[in-house]
Design brief:
The chain is mainly beta. It is 8% helix and 34% strand. The chain is built from two helices and nine strands, in the order ββββαββββαβ. The strands form two sheets. Strands 2-9-8-4-5-7 form a six-stranded mixed β-sheet, covered by helices on one side. Strands 1-3-6 form a three-stranded antiparallel β-sheet, with no helix packed on it. The radius of gyration is 14 Å and the shape is globular.
Length: 151
């Protein structure tokens, strides 16, 4: 049985996310590759957050909340126009991708992919917490990719 995987052709796990993906730059999501999706998967969900923001912001900062991605999706292109999926609210108060924007030092960002045995019926302004509440009991597998970004 293969494990769910999440990689990027733009950066290796634990390496630097290219500058153009930053919030104050082009603010486009990096390309992502998905593999090993379990057979029973009905949808994929993706969360990008910044646990290093806890000290300056007082919370883990959410950069991207995406759900109901088709289970046969193998590639998410750079600057993805996610018309066929649902995107929730990031902590910039916007819908969709909100790139890295650390205030004073390098931060590590988590790209978290979930294979779910259900489609989620969330509202368009749903948050990461809403997604996690709805996905509870439906996670078949998960994968992680880390990237760093400095001001």
């Amino acid at each position: 049985m293969t494990e769910l995987s999440l990689t990027s052709p733009a950066f290796e796990d634990g390496e630097r996310i290219p500058r153009e993906h930053g919030y104050s730059e082009a603010n486009t999501n990096p390309p992502l590759d998905i593999g090993g999706v379990p057979e029973a998967t009905l949808s994929l969900a993706l969360v990008v957050d910044d646990p290093d923001a806890e000290e300056p912001a007082g919370k883990v900062w959410d950069h991207w909340v995406v759900w109901n991605v088709a289970p046969d999706t193998e590639h998410i292109p750079e600057g993805w126009s996610a018309d066929s999926v649902s995107e929730g609210q990031n902590d910039y108060g916007e819908t969709g991708w909100g790139g890295p924007n650390p205030p004073e030092r390098e931060h590590t960002y988590r790209f978290l992919l979930y294979a779910l045995d259900a489609k989620l019926g969330l509202s368009p302004n749903a948050t990461k917490d809403d997604l996690y509440d709805a996905a509870g009991g439906h996670v078949l597998d998960k994968a992680k990719l880390h990237g760093t970004y400095a001001p």
